[in-house]
Design goal:
There is one protein chain. This protein is an alpha+beta fold. The chain folds into two domains: 6-84, no CATH class; 87-117, no CATH class. 59% of the residues lie in helices and 13% in strands. It is built from four helices and three strands. It has helices at residues 6-10, 16-43, 48-68, 70-84; strands at 89-94, 100-105, 112-114. Strands 1-2-3 form a three-stranded antiparallel beta sheet, with no helix packed on it. It is elongated, with a radius of gyration of 25 Å. The two termini are 29 Å apart.
Length: 117
């Protein structure tokens, strides 16, 4: 994916990780905006309309901040995911009859699969 052109990458469907991150970001921005609206109405005594306008402003600004720092945030998420990812090693062997066997090492269970010639 990294070797493809930017135009091709822009039409690619989002991965599951990106969908999860974006949904978490939008949920976090909504919660922050709702807290700002709640504080404006109950703490500072503004009316409902002003609170709703502040909700929209807080929401747009927080999404804008995320988009501005998106590359930094995604880099941190990628580094964290590589820290906790389990490494998988494949061992290839050949039987006396010439049949090749691939064995996964590094998982809880060891799987053996037959390779087609």
């Amino acid at each position: 994916m990294r070797n493809s052109s930017q135009r091709t990458r822009s039409y690619a469907s989002p991965t599951r990780d990106k969908i999860f991150i974006w949904s978490a970001v939008v949920a976090g921005c909504v919660i922050m905006a709702l807290l700002g609206r709640h504080a404006a109405i109950h703490r500072f005594g503004t009316d409902q309309f002003t609170g709703n306008v502040l909700f929209a402003v807080f929401f747009v600004l927080s999404i804008g901040l995320y988009c501005g720092f998106q590359s930094v945030i995604e880099d941190v998420f990628n580094r964290l995911s590589t820290l906790f990812r389990r490494r998988e090693v494949m061992a290839l062997t050949e039987t006396t009859t010439g049949e090749q066997i691939a064995e996964r090492i590094g998982t809880k269970k060891t799987y053996i699969s037959r390779l087609e010639n």
